[in-house]
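Propose amino acids for all 293 sites.
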């Protein structure tokens, strides 16, 4: 990794390092001044008073926030469970040797990567019910997220597949695998292992997209925060707590992605996907058999 960094990035000299340190210290000082000024303004207006925060230690408030958190996690989990396999399928279709299959996948990916998610949600909320397609509130949020995220995740899987050595598919075909068998049993498992940290990082995007549940009145965390604000008028306090919850969840997902990346790097001895190629082929069904006609 250090040699790659030296190739891609010229290390700064003594003067450059001093300049970087000076700019870093200045940036931190400016940020500290802004934060201090903001806290002073909030304190002068009573927003930091203890009584404004005590309500959030009571059971009714915690129950409302807990329901919102559960709604967010449920929508995020269901979206991921559906979008990730669909994204893998779209990636395989886009790499298919059959032109109609490939063009169908390209059309889906390019269209839904370009459509804003909020527009799609409004389509399910306002337009489709007029034509008899009226899904439950939960699915009015989840289905648009799946449609958009599967197109994005398809490109992640495709990048992972293309990063593998071409000899993998050739070796799989040499031992008798057909194209889809090779993809399913040899190529896709290695590509999934390669892009797994990126897939976990995509959960952060799915989590943030779930905040659009307010558009369909789905009780996710932001919607429940808005409900508390309307009842208590503690807007600043409510959304600070909501923001902290999101930061904690995203931090944990980021740590999980880093942990998975380190473990995969250790398992492959730092050699990346090539280190697992022989193992994948050796463990594949029918390995060593003569090619079939």
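Proposal:
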């Amino acid at each position: 990794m250090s040699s790659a960094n030296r190739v891609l990035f010229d290390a700064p000299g003594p003067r450059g390092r001093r300049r970087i340190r000076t700019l870093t210290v200045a940036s931190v000082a400016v940020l500290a001044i802004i934060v201090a000024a903001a806290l002073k303004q909030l304190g002068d207006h009573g927003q930091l008073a203890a009584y404004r925060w005590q309500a959030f230690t009571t059971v009714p408030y915690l129950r409302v926030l807990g329901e919102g958190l559960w709604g967010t996690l449920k929508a995020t989990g269901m979206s991921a469970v559906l979008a990730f396999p669909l994204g893998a399928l779209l990636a395989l279709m886009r790499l298919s040797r059959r032109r109609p299959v490939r063009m169908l996948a390209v059309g889906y990916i390019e269209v839904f990567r370009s459509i804003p998610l909020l527009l799609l949600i409004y389509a399910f909320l306002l337009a489709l019910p007029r034509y008899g397609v009226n899904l439950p509130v939960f699915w009015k949020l989840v289905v648009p997220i799946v449609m958009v995220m599967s197109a994005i995740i398809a490109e992640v899987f495709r990048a992972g597949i293309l990063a593998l050595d071409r000899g993998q598919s050739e070796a799989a075909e040499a031992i008798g695998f057909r194209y889809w068998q090779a993809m399913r049993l040899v190529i896709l498992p290695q590509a999934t292992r390669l892009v797994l940290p990126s897939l976990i990082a995509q959960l952060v995007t799915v989590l943030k997209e779930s905040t659009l549940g307010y558009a369909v009145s789905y009780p996710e965390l932001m919607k429940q925060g808005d409900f508390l604000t309307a009842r208590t008028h503690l807007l600043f306090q409510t959304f600070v707590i909501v923001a902290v919850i999101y930061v904690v969840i995203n931090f944990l997902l980021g740590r999980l992605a880093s942990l998975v990346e380190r473990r995969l790097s250790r398992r492959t001895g730092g050699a990346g996907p090539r280190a697992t190629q022989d193992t994948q082929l050796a463990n594949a069904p029918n390995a060593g058999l003569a090619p079939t006609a």
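The chain has one domain: 73-283. Residues 180 and 215 are 41 Å apart (CA to CA).
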